[in-house]
Automatic annotation (TrEMBL):
<feature type="binding site">
    <location>
        <position position="116"/>
    </location>
    <ligand>
        <name>ATP</name>
    </ligand>
</feature>
<feature type="binding site">
    <location>
        <begin position="330"/>
        <end position="332"/>
    </location>
    <ligand>
        <name>substrate</name>
    </ligand>
</feature>
<keyword id="KW-0816">Tricarboxylic acid cycle</keyword>
<comment type="similarity">
    <text>Belongs to the succinate/malate CoA ligase beta subunit family.</text>
</comment>
<dbReference type="Pfam" id="PF00549">
    <property type="entry name" value="Ligase_CoA"/>
</dbReference>
<feature type="domain" description="ATP-citrate synthase/succinyl-CoA ligase C-terminal">
    <location>
        <begin position="271"/>
        <end position="390"/>
    </location>
</feature>
<keyword id="KW-0479">Metal-binding</keyword>
<comment type="subunit">
    <text>Heterotetramer of two alpha and two beta subunits.</text>
</comment>
<keyword id="KW-0436">Ligase</keyword>
<feature type="binding site">
    <location>
        <position position="50"/>
    </location>
    <ligand>
        <name>ATP</name>
    </ligand>
</feature>
<dbReference type="GO" id="GO:0000287">
    <property type="term" value="F:magnesium ion binding"/>
</dbReference>
<dbReference type="GO" id="GO:0004776">
    <property type="term" value="F:succinate-CoA ligase (GDP-forming) activity"/>
</dbReference>
<dbReference type="Pfam" id="PF08442">
    <property type="entry name" value="ATP-grasp_2"/>
</dbReference>
<dbReference type="InterPro" id="IPR005809">
    <property type="entry name" value="Succ_CoA_ligase-like_bsu"/>
</dbReference>
<keyword id="KW-0067">ATP-binding</keyword>
<dbReference type="InterPro" id="IPR017866">
    <property type="entry name" value="Succ-CoA_synthase_bsu_CS"/>
</dbReference>
<dbReference type="GO" id="GO:0005829">
    <property type="term" value="C:cytosol"/>
</dbReference>
């Protein structure tokens, strides 16, 4: 589950991570009041207005701007709220901005120049250890840094049985070229950041940039946080942070009825039971010259109601030109799935695309007869190659 910047910062701050302070606003008037309150609390004269969407690169799309007075706060907030923000991480249509974060200006003058760093905490799946990735090149796309100057990216892997050790936090501060007060502040920052990551059951914490202020404070200016959905039962307060406005509508609908669904850009809808078979089915579609329109795992209880819900989801996609149903009857009986397909087809009414059904396993012969005798425009196949040939046929 992805979080907005302000939500990620709330979690960080709850574990002792220093953050750039800010207040969320839904309207330009609220943005002005937020700016006034921040001025009272922090003394900041300038404010940064940040679009709150689940996408990086907001500044490149005009979603992060500096306001030097209250008039500019109101104007900039008015320009950003309601806009469709297009960034390198959004679709061509962009994402609609419903709210902004009004923050304090932390790039104030002082004894030294502010410096920006990159830092993230994530799981290294190759060895099953958590990893802190960091760089002196903060504020930039880390992918570009990795491509152009890979020697400027450092990694610190953490033994899960020991946790983050003190010498590792000090090593990170040293590699970032820090000394004195900034060195001590960075070691505290790293320790608190790792604690926030593990205790919140997150799969990613990305801070870009981490800022060393002109008076040697270390603070998180941004926060990209992804929580592990499987651990949300332990964090009901985090679960309440979900913003379904930022999520794919079809995926939200699928989740509500217990379907595992991922929206894709292809032309062949898939309905499968089991993640492995679903991946194989998507490969099959590619080999047949099509493109998968979705990943859809109906699970082991593919009754008529679930099948109908799955069909409805697939048919809402205007790009779908055919549907391939590929079910292996292990736990679930094929004849039950077949009856679900027939009932769902009749319930939906007019289906605008051809449907190819492959059922294998328990009672597969009975299932094929049910479909063949239904009188519906459904193509029943047995073998994988037969399914691929039929997909190719209906697309041509």
């Amino acid at each position: 589950m992805n979080l907005h910047e302000y939500q990620g910062k709330e979690i960080l701050n709850s574990f002792g991570v220093e953050i750039q302070r800010g207040i969320v606003a839904q309207t330009p008037a609220e943005a002005v009041e937020a700016a006034k309150k921040l001025t009272e609390e922090t003394g900041t004269g300038w404010h940064v207005i940040k679009a709150q969407v689940h996408a990086g690169g907001r500044g490149k799309g005009g979603g992060v701007k500096l306001a030097k007075n209250l008039q500019e706060v109101e104007q900039i907030a008015g320009d950003i709220i309601g806009m469709n923000l297009i960034t390198p991480q959004t679709s061509a249509e962009g994402k609609k901005v419903h709210q902004v974060l009004v923050t304090e200006d932390v790039y104030y003058p002082g004894d030294s120049e502010p410096e920006e760093y990159y830092m993230s905490v994530l799981l290294n799946r190759a060895n099953g250890k958590n990893m802190i990735m960091y760089s002196t090149e903060g504020g930039m796309d880390i992918e570009k840094v990795a491509e152009d100057t890979p020697h400027l990216i450092f990694h610190e892997e953490i033994d899960p049985s020991l946790g983050l050790m003190g010498f590792q936090a000090r090593k990170i501060a040293f590699n970032l070229g820090l000394s004195g007060k900034a060195f001590k502040e960075m070691t505290k920052f790293v320790s608190a950041l790792y604690k926030a990551y593990t205790n919140s059951d997150s799969s990613l914490f990305e801070i870009n940039p981490v800022l060393k202020t002109s008076d040697d404070k270390i603070i998180a200016v941004d926060a990209k946080v992804t929580l592990d959905d499987n651990a949300l039962f332990r964090h009901k307060d985090y679960e309440a942070m979900r913003d379904i406005r930022e999520e794919n509508e079809a995926e939200v609908e699928a989740k509500a009825v217990g379907l595992n669904y991922v929206d894709l850009d292809g032309n062949v809808g898939c309905m499968v039971n089991g993640a492995g078979l679903a991946m194989a089915t998507m490969d099959l579609i590619k080999q047949a010259g099509g493109e998968p329109a979705n990943f859809l795992d109906v699970g082991g209880t593919a009754d008529a109601e679930r099948v109908e819900a799955a069909f409805n989801l697939i048919l809402k996609d205007p790009n779908v030109k055919a549907i391939l149903v590929n079910i292996f009857g292990g736990i679930v009986r094929c004849d039950r799935v077949a009856q679900g397909i027939v009932d769902a087809y009749k319930s939906i009414g007019t289906v605008r695309v051809p449907i190819i059904v492959r059922l294998q396993g328990t009672n597969a012969d009975i299932a094929k007869k049910l479909i063949d005798d239904s009188g519906l425009d459904v193509h029943s196949v047995i073998e994988f190659q037969e399914a691929a040939d039929k997909v190719q046929e209906v697309l041509s």
